[in-house]
Design a protein that fits this description.
mainly beta; six-stranded antiparallel beta barrel
Length: 171
């Protein structure tokens, strides 16, 4: 399977004895875990396994899921630590000015004066807004809040982001 795949969750543990797994969601789209949806289980050094969700519930900030044909703890015990992914065809169309993380990560960041700041290497979601971690050529990583006052332009085609560095942002 040579398709590009994207993380939507990580299996952190089993739950009970009936094949339920505890999943840390890495997606803003809860509907990825609804009954009947297809996910791919990706374990280290193995081919992805296509799975169909047969039950889903949310419990204490985690998604508790069972998969069709896996109804015993012994069937899913070895899934721990593995990622659940979707393929490119399963991506949801976004509204204008909305982006997937994978579209932003790797973008070059420039000030509105065309000064190259660095490259987005990671996106954090601490609360009210996302924070982009920008790796600089020299020096420590910068934290750029994804807010309208700071992020002025995003061009996914050219992988370029333009920011307005408010006071103290680049210190």
């Amino acid at each position: 399977m040579n398709e590009k795949m994207f993380n939507v969750g990580k299996i952190v543990n089993t739950h009970g004895i009936r094949g339920e797994v505890k999943v840390l969601r890495i997606s803003d789209f809860e509907e990825r875990f609804f009954v009947g949806e297809t996910l791919f289980l990706v374990m280290e050094n193995k081919q992805p396994i296509q799975l169909e969700i047969s039950s889903h519930r949310t419990h204490k900030g985690f998604e508790l899921i069972t998969f069709k044909g896996f109804d015993n703890i012994n069937d899913v015990e070895h899934f721990k630590g593995s990622y659940l992914k979707i393929n490119e065809d399963q991506l949801t169309d976004l509204d204008e000015d909305e982006y997937y993380y994978h579209e932003i990560i790797g973008c070059a960041v420039y000030t509105n004066n065309e000064e190259n700041i660095g490259t987005v290497k990671e996106i954090l979601s601490p609360g009210a807004n996302d924070v982009w971690v920008v790796k600089q050529e020299k020096g420590k990583d910068l934290l750029i809040p994804y807010i309208d006052d700071v992020v002025q332009k995003i061009d996914i085609e050219t992988k370029k982001v333009v920011i307005n560095p408010i006071e103290g942002l680049l210190d």
